[in-house]
Amino acid sequence: MSINAENVKRMIEEGRAVVGIELGSTRIKTVMIDEEHIPVASGSYAWENRLDGHIWTYSLEDIWKGLQGSYQDMVKNVKETYGVDVKKIAAVGFSAMMHGYMAFDKEDKLLVPFRTWRNTITGQAAEELTELFQYNIPERWSIAHLYQAILNKEEHVKDVAYFTTLAGYIHWRMTGRKVLGIGDASGMFPIDIQTKDFDERMIGQFDQLVADRGYGWKLRQIMPKVLLAGEDAGTMTEEGAALLDPSGMLQAGAVVCPPEGDAGTGMAATNSVAVRTGNVSAGTSVFAMIVLEKELSKVHREIDMVTTPTGSLVAMAHANNCTSDLNAWVSLFREYGEAMGVKADMDEIFATLYNRALEGDADCGGLLSYGFYSGESIVPVDEGRPLFVRTPDSRFNLANFMRTHLYAALGTLKIGMDILVKEEKIQIDKILGHGGLFKTPGVGQRIMAAAMQAPVSVMETAGEGGAWGIALLASYAVHKEEGETLEAYLNSRVFGGDEGVKMEPDAGDMAGFETFIERFKEGLSVEQEAVRKLV
After folding, report:
1. CB under 8 A, 24+ apart: contacts of 446-449
2. Beta strands in 59-168 (DSSP E)
3. Where in the numbering of this chain does the Carbohydrate kinase FGGY N-terminal domain appear (predicted)?
């Protein structure tokens, strides 16, 4: 849809624009949308986590410098494009990478450096809490970080007055409100789907577990209040406006929606918040999130349980590795072509090789690949050793070779998804695919449909990202009508019934992928031996 610059200019001048900001692992992105939910300006700021001792972290200075830098880049984009300053906005939302641990004392001082999701230092805590709750507690979760600090007898724990996520921290500083959107909260501590709040039974179990430690707090007292999308999460204060825009131009008073995690904003950006829908992001890593009709029958350590921004239960299968090894092979073919005097655009090379894969045998002709650049907990493999294997009688040709690497890119994800589809018998009506794997039309989509055993759709807007997703949640907070659900709002007002280009799974592809994945699982001992022997 085209943008009318004069209308956008007037909207900005009148303070009717909505802004979304998401702090990702390597980039902070700011998006401004109009009243039709179309992005009209954007800004970004590149940042990287740092290793502080043995903790992966971002400093408070990093956080505020990055947040302000991304916002100012958007403001600059507005000025250059529309010739106006951003003085007032109708609403804003803040999102960030989920999980992690930010703990503060009663004077609001950060007690220890922010511990991000990337840290794998809470193994004992995660195991013990999973056993206690009978609910999967991944190492990334905030409660695992808190309990590991207790197990480590860290001095700071006695002084904790509040702990939250990165998005929750920023929202608190912007509004003075200690709240958290339910999707982000579900990465802190298990959610009771009936009450749409932290699980009281498990809170009681935790308090009893640490009762002999003599802390002056109970768990509920030091956690944020859980809010659903659209609920009152406060407005931007004078202090908050000055923090976001140190120039002093931005006025206070904007509605601030409940802060969310990157999983929730991804669901909003792909219109995947309704029951029996899901989205799968496939790039350097790959993860699928499916909105469930009911609880799973048992605990699966391979599956994370989170929620949508409205509190519906979501099962997430996550794999650290997806397209890195596939991309490396494509680059090798480019290098070969250049050595032969043939130069081609990378998009053309990808399209040629990906489409050739569709000519291969459905089971890849007996070829096998592991694209593990890093370890995978689902499998399990501790470290990465990319590996390609074949037998003398395998059907070794270009089509099968490329198909093998496409299958392998989704191998670990499929193992996780098979738990949901085959063991738990969950029903999936629609999956929205986004990410680099889907850039070549029809190929990654077809392979993904075979892996997921469900229809996969791709929409142009899927590439807008989480900053757009949190902007949509902020817009919902100010524009929803009484009783209008987020699902209805997204369907009717944002996506307008657009379900993208849909592809049903092919029966032959599914059968071939099943044969491949059995070979993939049988050969894992070879991959594990490579980790041990190739150092």
Report:
1. 446/358, 446/503, 446/506, 446/509, 447/357, 447/403, 447/406, 447/407, 447/410, 447/509, 447/513, 448/280, 448/282, 448/410, 449/503, 449/504, 449/505, 449/506, 449/509
2. 91-96, 102-104, 162-164
3. 18-243
Q: Could you tell me if 156 and 243 lie in one domain? A: no
The answer to whether residues 303 and 425 belong to one domain is yes
pLDDT tens track for 200-218: 999 999 999 999 999 999 9
Dist CA 416 CA 405 (whole Å): 18
Name the more confident of 176 and 266: 176
> Are 237 and 291 contained in the same domain?
no
Query: 421 with 453: CB under 8 angstroms?
Result: yes
Residues 138 and 246 in one domain: no
- Confirm whether 24 is domain-assigned: yes
pLDDT 10s digits, 469-517 = 999 999 999 999 999 999 999 999 999 877 789 999 999 999 999 999 9
Tell me, what's the pLDDT at 306? 94
Instruction: For 77-161, list the strands marked E by DSSP.
Output: 91-96, 102-104
What ranges in 453-506 are assigned the alpha helix state H?
466-479, 486-489
Q: What's 116's domain CATH number? A: 3.30.420.40
Tell me the pTM: 0.87
* 455 occurs within a structural domain: yes
Q: Given this model, what pLDDT does residue 52 score?
A: 86
Strands in 203-274 per DSSP E: 225-227, 255-256, 260-261
Residues 363 and 386 reside in one and the same domain: yes
Q: How many domains does the chain have?
A: 3
Domain assignment present for residue 264? The answer is no
Tens digit of each residue's pLDDT (9 = 90 or more) over 347-372: 999 999 999 999 999 999 999 999 99
Q: Token digits for 231? A: 């609920």
| Residue 417 and residue 510 share a domain | yes
AA letter at 60: L
- The single residue listed with the structure tokens 């951003």 is 86
Question: 411 Cβ partners below 8 Å, 6+ apart?
Answer: 370, 516, 517, 520
In a domain, 482, yes or no: yes
